[in-house]
Every structure is written in structure tokens, then in C-alpha cells.
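fyi for ur records
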Amino acid sequence: MTMRDSLLFVFHVISCVQFSFAVYYDYVHVVVPRRSTEIHSDYGGKFKFLTFWNAIVQAIFFFICMLNDWFGTNAVNPKKPPFIRKLKDFVHASFSFPGAMLVGIVFWTLMFIDRELIFPKALDAYFPWWLNHLMHTMIVVSILVETILAPRKYPKRLHGVLATTGVEILYTIWMHIIYYKSNAWVYPVMDVMSFPVRMVFIAALLTFGAIVYIAGEALDNFVWGKKYVAESDGPDLKA
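which gave:
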């Protein structure tokens, strides 16, 4: 294992641990009283929040990266990539990168406009600032570092965009089930919207998810562009 491979493995371990700990701490130790924000005590528990799901996805993704470091390959363009490498590349392109960027960008944009729309100030007493940054800032930083440090092969664009959009649609359905069961929206921003505006907002988010996917593909091509893809297998992790 070369020095570069060793550093990459250490990065993957740190990333996996930090998101696994974030999920654990949020699930076990963050208890928000009903009097603070009604939605925190209603149907769905922690699993109602996209941020929580995204942190789980990131933890799983970086665990897959660790497995690929040991049993797969980080070669730029392997002729016969093993299954774990194919899985890593697909999860990165379709779920990890779009999810991290969508959560990070939308969260901090709404926080800048009016934090009460997404993360009410009443939560500060129960949701530590460092956990907030782990789940809404480090997800973006970590996935960008991963994009720069490790090569991957993107799936066909249609397949990748459909996978990304499919997850977003499933969460949208889940969010409406929660509203039906609890009569409360997961995010306060939905409360201030009329039905037509809400539908436009959801459509805009689905479109933005597809745009983020394409942007990730473009960033990957910029970092690991055609001259790299044209190379032979390159240095294998096990070499």
C-alpha cells in the first residue's frame, strides 16, 4: 500500500467514524421536548429528517470506500473493476454527492434567509453546534475531498439521475405521510407555503437534485478528465 493509498484509507476511516458518531449522537442523545418544536415528538422520530437519512448514507458510503481500499481498487481506470468498486462509484455519483450537496446548500441557504424556516433557534439548547456542522457542513467538505482524492467512473447519466430523483421522490412521499399522520410538516418552511407554492418548491428541489448530479459529474470530469480516463489501469491499491 503506497503512502497515497494509506492517506486515502485514513481519510475514509475518519469520515466513516464522524458520520457514524453523528448518527449515533443524534439518535441517542438529542432529545427535543415537544414544547420546543412540535414536529420533533411526532410520527417518524429521527427518521423524518432528510439530514438524518443523509448522514446514514454518508456513513455507509465511506464504509464502502474502506472496503474498496482493502478489497477493491483505486486505480484511475481499471479494466475489470471489482463489484465493490462499481458499488462505490455508483453510490458516490447517485446518492452520496447529490445528497450531501442538496442538504448542505438548501440548509444553509434557508438558514441565511430565515433560520426559523429550517432550524428554529429553540433547537440550539438541544442540538449542539458541532453536530449541526457535522451534518450540514462536513458532509459537503468530505464529499468534495473524496471527489478530488479518489477516481471513479460515473454511471450512464440517465441511470444516475433517475436514481437520485427516485430517492428524492421517495422522501417527498415519506414527508407527506408524516404530515398525514401528525398534521405537522417536517420543515417549518412548508407551513408558510400555499399548496401551489409548495408544489413548485418541491418540483424545484427535484430539478435542483438533477442539476447537482450533473454538476458532480462535471466536477469529476474536471478533476479526473479525459486525459486520465485515457490512461491504462494506473497504480492499483494492491500494487
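The first helix runs from residue 3 to 29. thats all i got for now
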